[in-house]
């Protein structure tokens, strides 16, 4: 992965407390699994994370961990934000009055009139108090559906990391990670390069997402990059969750302990077997990742 991207994302995360993960409206198991693994990892880093998709969660994806965390609404407040073009000194004052059960917001220009088209006025719900935004599996921002239509200010004003596998991607992010491979593989590689605290459940989501794209995993079927990522996930005892029932909240802890005692994933070729990976992973996560970060923001206006 591009070294500059890795350094920039590391810096961005170190200075971010609240993160939004937005999934493409037409998502699949690969994209959902990648988003959930990223969500779980950032939560483990004590970030405030929201994961959203305009598409309702599919029942057939219920085996993925933290599937219940996906929402179709941007959280962080119920404020209505009215956004309009502004030039310094163009507005004299803002007031309101209520008439016939209607709330009227009155913007008085300093000159003869406000110099913008009424069609440029945008209405958004939610304060958009995010320090960074990840967009997964979207060719362009419109691919997010209503999530983008209702919250354009978030995606235009915040640092945006675009992760996608499509050759048609418009590279709309400040940081673009676009390669012809499963999104789960891209996220796994990013987590590996950043040395983020990936646990077994998040690793299993990523492994499942990768398998959903490659099908059978053999040396002849996947490239060396994929094998390297699968080996990394194997050391974390990742499992293919497909067709497995998602545990209840009360069962999660017990199931995780049981999986630690089970066999690990196997990667096979037609000629030989690479074997089970059963050694522990040395924790290489930098100590300062989980320490509280002091950050500042310079926001104009108020919510």
**What's the CATH C level of the largest domain?**
Alpha Beta
Total beta strand runs: 10
C-alpha end-to-end distance: 38 Å
Helix content: 25-40%
Task: Describe the fold and architecture.
- With 303 residues, this protein is α/β, with parallel strands linked by helices.
- The protein has 2 domains: 239 residues, inorganic pyrophosphatase (n-terminal core) (Alpha-Beta Complex), CATH 3.90.1640.10; 36 residues, no CATH class.
- The strands form 3 sheets. A 6-stranded parallel sheet has the order 3-2-1-8-9-10.
- Helix 2 packs antiparallel against helix 6.
- It is elongated and about 70 Å long.
- The C terminus is likely disordered.
Features:
Oligoribo/pAp-PDE_c-di-AMP_PDE, alpha/beta, DHH_sf, 2 domains, single chain, two-stranded antiparallel ribbon, 8 helices, inorganic pyrophosphatase (n-terminal core), 303 residues, Phosphoesterase RecJ domain protein
SSE diagram, text form:
Elements: H1 3-14, E1 18-23, H2 29-44, E2 48-53, E3 70-71, E4 80-83, E5 91-99, E6 102-109, E7 122-125, E8 132-136, H3 146-150, H4 152-157, E9 160-164, E10 175-178, H5 183-194, H6 200-214, H7 224-234, H8 252-259
Parallel strand pairs: 1-2, 1-8, 2-3, 8-9, 9-10
Antiparallel strand pairs: 4-7, 5-6
Region (Disordered): 242-303
Biased composition (Low complexity): 249-266
Protein name: Phosphoesterase RecJ domain protein
In short:
Residues 242-303 are annotated as: Disordered. The protein is α/β, with parallel strands linked by helices and 303 residues long.
């Amino acid at each position: 992965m591009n070294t500059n991207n890795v350094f920039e994302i590391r810096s961005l995360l170190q200075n971010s407390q609240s993160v939004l993960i937005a999934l493409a409206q037409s998502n699949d198991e690969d994209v959902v699994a990648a988003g959930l693994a990223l969500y779980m990892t950032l939560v483990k880093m004590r970030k405030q994370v929201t994961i959203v998709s305009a598409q309702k969660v599919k029942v057939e994806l219920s085996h993925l961990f933290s599937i219940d965390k996906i929402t179709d609404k941007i959280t962080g407040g119920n404020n209505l934000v009215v956004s309009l073009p502004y030039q310094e000194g163009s507005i004299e004052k803002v007031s309101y009055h209520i008439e016939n059960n209607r709330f009227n917001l009155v913007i008085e220009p300093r000159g003869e009139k406000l110099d913008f088209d009424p069609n440029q006025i945008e209405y958004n719900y939610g304060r958009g108090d995010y320090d960074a935004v990840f967009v997964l599996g979207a060719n362009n921002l419109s691919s997010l559906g209503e999530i983008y239509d209702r919250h354009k200010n978030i995606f235009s004003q915040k640092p945006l990391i675009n992760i996608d596998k499509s050759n048609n991607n418009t590279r709309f992010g400040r940081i673009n990670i676009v390669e012809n491979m499963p999104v789960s593989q891209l996220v796994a590689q990013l987590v590996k390069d950043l040395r983020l605290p990936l646990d077994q459940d998040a690793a299993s989501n990523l492994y499942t997402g990768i398998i959903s794209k490659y099908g059978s995993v053999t040396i002849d079927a996947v490239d060396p990059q994929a094998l390297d990522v699968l080996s990394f996930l194997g050391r974390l005892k990742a499992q293919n969750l497909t067709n497995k029932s998602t545990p209840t909240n009360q069962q999660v802890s017990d199931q995780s302990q049981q999986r630690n005692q089970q066999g690990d994933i196997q990667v096979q070729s037609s000629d030989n077997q690479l074997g089970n990976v059963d050694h522990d992973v040395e924790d290489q996560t930098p100590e300062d990742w989980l320490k509280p970060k002091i950050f500042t923001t310079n926001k104009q206006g108020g919510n």
